[in-house]
Structure to design on (664 residues):
DNA sequence: TCGATGGGTGTGACCGGTCACACTTCCTGC
DNA sequence: GCAGGAAGTGTGACCGGTCACACCCATCGA
């Protein structure tokens, strides 16, 4: 593998000049530049990123720490990060952390706090992410995508504030005539995830009974089980689901219990996954712009790396999207 | 930031001894090792990955080149790669290539063919991936996840052979009494993607008319449009969809056209996305183990890097999963 | 007693870039 | 005529590890 020294020798210039060409420095005569570029091509020269990073002291890179890469919210956030990082010519790495066990968290933190490793974006939608965020040494440049209301950390954090939308969704159901709204929750760091907080607040504001939250996991079977539980109670006529995947399984559970959506029971989801508009019935849900969240994280991180911390990144608030899965409750 | 030299000085040993401790060399007295480890902790020492990579000449890392990170097949493959890479202590990077334009392909290839960059896994389910695979210099260690039947490249390639399952699915519909089976295709490199090939072959084998393939994109609207087109033709009673996302939109299109699934039209998908079992009706589909595919890619790549090329990675064949979206055609 | 063996440790060069700085040449202005 | 600057280029040290090798000292068998 040829190095800049080899290229320099072959082109009859110094290695520093080759380095300048590599970095697009304006202080190289056009003629010289072309000469060097030509030799590079001929020799099949490829710059060595590790050497460049070592010399510079910092990599142009971002590592994403996340508990998951396939669930919609995580995947879409990652997509936003990747797109934005690519625009800024940052390399992107991924480190999945799928346990809150201390040893696992420590290993993830070690992997990621490389002094030459660029910046870190922690997707802290869950306990794993928050644990990593807490354990990350102060010297590591990092920003975090979090849920609203997570205990403050001394870092730049960005969130999609879904509380208002959750409250809107709840009020929408109440406005349709439902006596109350039930909630099936997905796993969360804070007991009072933003979604749940908005729901609770809207019910309280309407002076309506607040039913017990039904917990579910990320998996369809647990969401289905939660749905069956509520489906068995004839007084339940409206369900706010923790996310769209949950809503899918819940809708099936209702179907299996002989309850129609939306005629007998109204269902609202969260996220607006691609395809939610094509369900039968099309799903009323809260649109979350995770891609924008991801992009904002990169913007903030770049600020962090350049020593110009970007506080207060404002993101458009998530909005309720009305479709077909909600209706007035059945007349008794 | 302390370096091994600083640690060595503080511990009263040579930097080489520190390096040995770092690499778990057995040729260090236990006492010395603990002493060094202790100093490292106290000083907050963090190894510099770039320096290590430069010294060694190669990184313990894998970069995934893919056209997408959120669509199910891609995301699940990525998940498999990540899990396996983590097991093997390889860092994982991502480079998305979302255009077949020559300049874009070249940039992706440049980004990825770092002489110190470890290995590359190309997810070549589509034209973008295949273009990168073709443009990758021979010196870069790489393996590819591909569709069956893609023109051979001189590299290790791994695929999920879906042709048999596609043929099974088609024959299943024929066996139910359908006169023929229509196919809505997703974007593909080869005009005859594995799925389409299996379908075509089964129809030919049964001596049945082979309808024209209806093309669709990755997006729901285009799949919906394709579905509407077929829904308008009363002679179509069975549709094999390019993937489950397509099937979702097609099912909706049929619904909007007043055609029931499966009573009027049978629908089969591809992939078995999480949740397909919870649709109403639950989707009959072909289960694709993309996670295993991803893991196999890492195994093969590690072989490649160690100079022990792993040929012939065998993966369990995808299987048809019967659920509720297929039935005999309506009696005319 | 000596040489061979091997565990434990240190030295110098090197990986392939970058940085800071020095140098040359040519142009400009007084 | 010469100071002063700018454009273009080269030199040496350095980033933080690794590698190959030399070295020391204890133990052991002949």
């Amino acid at each position: 593998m040829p190095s800049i020294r080899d290229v320099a020798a072959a082109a009859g210039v110094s290695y520093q000049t080759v380095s300048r060409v590599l970095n697009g420095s304006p202080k190289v005569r056009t003629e010289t530049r072309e000469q060097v570029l030509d030799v590079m091509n001929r020799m099949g020269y490829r710059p060595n990123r590790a050497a460049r990073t070592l010399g510079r002291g910092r990599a142009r890179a971002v590592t994403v720490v996340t508990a998951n890469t396939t669930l919609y919210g995580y995947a879409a956030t990652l997509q936003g990060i990747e797109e934005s990082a690519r625009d800024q010519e940052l390399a992107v790495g991924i480190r999945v952390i799928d346990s809150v066990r201390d040893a696992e968290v420590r290993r993830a933190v070690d992997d990621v706090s490389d002094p030459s490793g660029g910046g870190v974006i922690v997707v802290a939608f869950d306990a794993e992410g928050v644990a990593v965020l807490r354990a990350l040494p102060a010297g590591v440049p990092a920003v975090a995508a979090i849920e609203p209301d997570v205990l403050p950390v001394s870092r730049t954090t960005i969130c999609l504030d879904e509380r208002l939308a959750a409250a809107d969704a709840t009020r929408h159901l109440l406005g349709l005539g439902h006596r109350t709204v039930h909630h099936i929750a997905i796993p969360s760091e804070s007991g009072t995830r933003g979604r749940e907080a908005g729901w609770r607040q809207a019910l309280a504001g309407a002076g309506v009974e607040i039913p017990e939250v039904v917990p579910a996991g990320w998996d369809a079977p647990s969401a289905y089980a939660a749905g069956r539980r509520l489906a068995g109670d004839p007084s339940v006529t409206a369900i706010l689901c923790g996310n769209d995947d949950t809503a899918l399984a819940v809708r099936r559970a209702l179907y299996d219990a002989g309850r129609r959506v939306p005629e007998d029971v109204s269902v609202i989801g969260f996220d607006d996954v691609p395809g939610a508009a094509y369900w039968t019935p099309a799903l009323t849900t809260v649109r979350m712009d995770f891609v924008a969240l991801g992009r904002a994280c990169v913007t903030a991180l770049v600020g962090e790396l350049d020593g110009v911390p970007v506080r207060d990144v404002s993101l458009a608030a998530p909005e309720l999207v009305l479709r077909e899965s909600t209706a007035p409750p059945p007349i008794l």
Observations:
- Chain A has a mean pLDDT of 95.
- The longest strand of chain A covers residues 61-66.
